[in-house]
Amino acid sequence: MSDKINYELEFVIQSSPQMLYQYISTPSGLSEWFADNVNSRGEKFTFIWDGSEEVANLLKKKSDEFIRFAWEDDDDDCYFELRIKVDDITSDVSLFISDFAEEDEVEEGKLLWTNQISSLKQVLGSA
């Protein structure tokens, strides 16, 4: 069992759930804001940053709702998930991030996601 702890973040995004899903679930969408380049072969996604590669396996997805990945080199039950929720009353679209980190790295992880989502908002014209 891992010592990593789960944390969640919520970001309001000015976008339709369908468009947002394309940016969180496809290699071309992810490479516009999450990594320098993203390739996929079946359930394996290769994320490339500054020449280094990380491979993640697609664990689950539901169209226009969520996608869940696990880093290939993590030998525990950790994953990261991007989930789209639409408020029933206001119709606001939110993106919930669920991720895991060592206790002393949670704040760093939150900051990293905040920066990544800022890039996503710029790409979507939602910033």
Automatic annotation (TrEMBL):
It comes from the Bacteria. InterPro entries: START-like_dom_sf, START_2. Residues 1-125 form the START-like domain. Coiled coil: none annotated. Gene3D superfamilies: 3.30.530.20. Pfam families: START_2. This is START-like domain-containing protein.
